[in-house]
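[audit] Reproducing an earlier prediction to check determinism. Same input, same settings, fresh worker. If the tokens differ from the archived copy the diff job will pick it up downstream; this log only records the rerun itself.
[audit] input (394 residues):
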Amino acid sequence: MVGVAFWLAVVIGTGFGALLFLFSGSVAAHLGDAANALAFQAIAWSAPFIIATSVLRGILEAKRQFLLINAIRIPTGTLNFVAPLLVVWLLRPDNELIAWSLTLGRILTFFLFLFFARRSAPYSLWRIKSMSGSAMLVTSGGWMTISNMAGPALNLVERLVIGGQLSLSFVTTYAMPQEIVSRLSIIPNAISIALFPELANNLLDRTELSRIYVNCLGAVLVLIAAPTLAIILFAHEILTLWMGASFAEASSFALQVFAVGGLAGALAQIPFVLIQARGDAKFTGTLHLVEVAVVSLALVVAVASWSLAGALAIWLTRCILDAAALFLRARKFAQLSFGRESASKILLLAVTLACIPLTWTDSLLPRVAALVLVTSLSAVSAIALLRSRTRESI
């Protein structure tokens, strides 16, 4: 199965690379600079290595080699920024040379993952004994790809609709706070990567799955509650310090809305990965495919009727309904039970939500007190979570 996945990735990557190579001139001309065709051809060579690397990283994730993965990704990720700078400083500012430096970095990353994947797992990547799993891989991978592309696709649609119906200045007002909140997704994404191979274990019964599921939800909440509340309560101050008073006046409400939706999305990441790990990627893919179609149409109407507020309302509604759908579907695989050990997390969530209305007060003291309270509850919940993990390991 691993060999099939690896070679499917190589074939798909080669296909994408070949298309980009053949149409590099057209792509460069469409972007306004036909001279960059050679740069796109250089990037095309990296496509099979990038896609195949995802399979090799998946092997290490399945073996829970997360320290090793980070040990590879941190220096190679840094190289993606350093290599173009070195090209400019040591040679000349040339897009083709910069593109080749990035491609060589992708190739180096591929061979590093290949070396350690072959050492960590007794899988044969070169021999394919059977193609029986290829249909399942293509189908499941296709639905996962749809889910993963839904978010970026909707972001693009939002900005096109806002820019087309309002103006480009509204796009900045909308997109900047959205990008700030999106950085918080690093926390649930990191937990999800570690969680996927655990939840995909077919030897786990429903009770054990439920325990892992609830614990990971608690971990995400503990890590995300205080930063999210800080953004909500101090949105105006944050944007004033960073972008100036006029931008803060225009975008602080958008930042607060994105933070509320981001909290729902962060928690929903756990049922999302549970559903996919248990082989139900068709549900998430279908859900997100429907969301793209419905939200795109709703955005056109909402922006035309209520300007930026309409776009924010659609975005927040989508986040909440998406989270509700994922939590409901996850009940098929695990029970979201609330025992005595969950009391601190439930209290943390309730207090966090109760503190959100304080954003309408101009007084600094109650907002600071609320943030201190939620941070303290997060610390207490984290200690309780660590103690429960310690008892389970004994």
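[audit] rerun output stored. Observation attached for the diff report: The radius of gyration is 23 Å.
[audit] end
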